[in-house]
Structure formats: structure tokens, C-alpha cells
Request: fold
Amino acid sequence: MGGAQRGNRKRKQNNRTQAARTVAAARGTNKDLPKIIIGVAVVLVIAVAVVVGVVLQQNRATQTNNATIPPVTTPSGDHYPGQFDKSTATVLVGKPTAKITIDAYEDFLCSVCGEFESTNFTAVDQQLAAGTIKVRYHMVDILNQASVPPGYSLMAANTALALATVAPDKFIDYHYSLYQDQPKENGPGYTQAQLNSLASRSGLTGAAYQQFLTLVNNKTYETQLTNNTNAAASNSALFQQNQDGSKGFGTPTIVSGGQIQNWQNDPNWLNTLVKTAYPS
Amino acid sequence: MLDGVGTLARLGLAAVWLISGAIKAADPNGTYAAVRAYNLFPSGVASLIAAVLPYLELALGLLILVGIGTRLVAVLSGLLLLVYIAGIAQSWARGLTINCGCFGNGGQVAAGQTHYLEEILRDVGFLALAVWLVVRPRTWVSVDGWLRGRREWVDTTDDGDDAESSRADSVSGDSGEGTASTVARRT
Reply:
């Protein structure tokens, strides 16, 4: 058992360590490979999910924005006039002799307003034609942030006023059309091009259409509309009770003779108004 | 036994992500409204978050369900849950009155109708599932386990030390550190 033997064993040990290192290095790469594959797979699945989400959203926007808004003609809209009031940025429809005036505060994106229009407009239209009521439309933009991109409420309101400026008698059909085929809250709204196209298909042509486009492009009524919204939102006479008991301004708000009409719980609200003003 | 607990945690977390992701994906407008209600992001960012979030949750659910990269997916799940908890907590602190929209129905609620504490506790519960899987990602019937099984089979053709090292490897989860440390000890 001399030093030579010990040296030999040590050499052997060194060799073995060397070999182990090589094996470890080689296996290290091998061991890492599945981890890398798993990591890549996880990242890939997540990346695909993100892309799917973005593409689906864009598809929804494209679908809405490629649609043609169908023009809807109100049954009796031809039998009563519309009148644009520049100072208040409102539109008054109905015969001047009507005793009842109804003020309607609506937002073009508001789904409950769409519900109000679809359940009540037939009766409203009949009374307008009969000359018992006038309706003053206050277009507000409380849901201006609730479209993707934001701004549909205000844009639609400005466009409707631009149309009312050049063709007040076409307003009621235009207004009704935008509620009949209404964009959903918190989804993509219609574009200005779609709103313009509806105006053109509603029969606005030539110089009138050009004037309409100028009013639209200059966003002529947007400041007034925003101010009107703020004024309505701070006018306690227009406040309604919310579900939790607090009070505030919401849309639609339907007012006549200083009274907020409870149209949701009272389907006879309009009949009652008419019978009170015109007892037979 | 502990593998069984891990498996339940894995399936539980998968169910959470798949259900909440599916509910959100089915109602994109509602999801946007829910994100917007937190009042944290400009509308462009909120709309991007609303577009991506449902599918991110579905992807995490799918990955954790099949058990691929369990530890990594559990880490990502935990991070997302921490973001959600922070979001709910800041709404509470700021006095917003919203529903978290964790499983749909997000948005404004009446002043007395908030459930911030319950929502946070629920998310903490989900976070516990994720933490379990981060600490101990080994579960039954997973892609990770299948891959590990293949590696062990390959390892048995090596010398005896490796049997021990691969056992150590198995206990510590999916990392290769077991082998490395065994080799280091030997030298």
C-alpha cells in the first residue's frame, strides 16, 4: 500500500468525478429540455388565448360597424310636424294645438330607452297623430362612456340634431330607427359613417345632406348636449328613485305637467294623461 | 395521499378558471362593464383587458386541468388572483359600490349591496389552491406526471445513484435540482 497506489486511486477517483461531471452536464441539458418544452407550451397556449380574445373583439366591432342600420318609418310620422329648437337643442314633435306636452329624456345607447320606445311608441305615435300630445325630445349622453370606443351617445345625439336642423319632419323616423336597431351598452356603437348613411337612406339628399354633413362634422351641438345632460343630472325635479332608495337622474325620464311618468309600472300612463286633458 | 390533495387543488383551480372564463367570454359587453366599473383604466385599456381576460382565464384553466407546467401555471394563477384581490380591495378602500364581476354580473350595485369581504375571502381560498400547487405541484393524472414517468424510465438505464436522484427529483416536483445536488454531493 504505497503512495503510488494511493495516487492511482486518486487518479481513478478524479477520472470518475470527471465522468460524473460530463454525465451531469449532458443530463442537465436533457433534464432542462422537458422544462423548456413545458414552458414554451404554457406561454404558447396563453399567447393564443390573448390573440383569440383580441381577434374576437375586433370581429364584434367589425360586425357592428359593417351593418346597415335599417331605416324604420313610424306609422303616422307623416301626420305631425317636427320642430328643432336651436336655443335648447331639443326637438318638439306633434301638432301645435295639442294640450299635453311630454318631455322625454333619452340616451341613444340606453337599453331601457330602447325598451320604452318599443313598448310605448305605437301609442305615442297615435296620440301625436291625433293631436292630443306633443313630445319634446331631450337627447342626453349619460352613457357616453359605455360604448367601445366611447362617444356613441353624444355622436348619435349630435347627428340626430343635425338631421332635425335640416329636415325636422324626418327626425321622428330617424330617432325611432336608432332605437329599433340599437347598439348594445358596453359594446361597439355605430360609427359616424353608419349614422350618416342612415340619414341619406332616410331620404336626405343634395344640399340638405351637405348641410347635415357640415353640422355633423363640426360637432355643432355637442357642447349644448353635454351642458343639457349636466343640467338634467343636477335637476332634482327629474330625479327618480333608484333600486337602493337613493335618488338620481337616469334615462329614460318621461315627464308631463311636472310629473314623472311611471311608464314601467303603469302601462296606462299615456291613456291616463290623455283622458285627464281631454275628458270625453 | 398528498398527491391526492394536490389533484383536488388542481381540479378545483381548473374549475374556477374555466367557469369564470366561460361566463366572461359569453358576455363580452358585461365583462367590459365590469372592468370599467373598477374605474382604474382609460376606456381603451379597459376594453383590451375585457377582451383578453376571459380567454386568459380559460387558457389557465385548460393548462391546469391537463396538468402541464403545473407549478408555472399555478404561479401565474396566483399572480392573477393577487391582482384581482388588489382590485377588489382598492374598490373597497375607495368606497366604490361595485360587484367584483368575478363570475359575471360585474358593475355598479346599490350602496348596501357590496360583498367585498366575501369576494376577497373567496379569492384567497382560490389563492390557497394555487399556493399548494406552487409548493407541491405533483398530482395524479397530469401531463407533468406523464413526462416525469418517461424520464424515470430513461433514468433507470443509468447507474444506481440515479434511481435515488430521480426519486428525490420526484418529491421536489418537476425540477431537475435533485440530480444536480446528488452529483454535487458525490464530488
In short: The first strand of chain B starts at residue 98 and ends at 99. The helical segments of chain B are 2-26, 28-37, 43-66, 70-94, 116-135, 143-155, 161-171, 177-186. Strands of chain B lie at 98-99, 107-108. The first helix of chain B runs from residue 2 to 26.
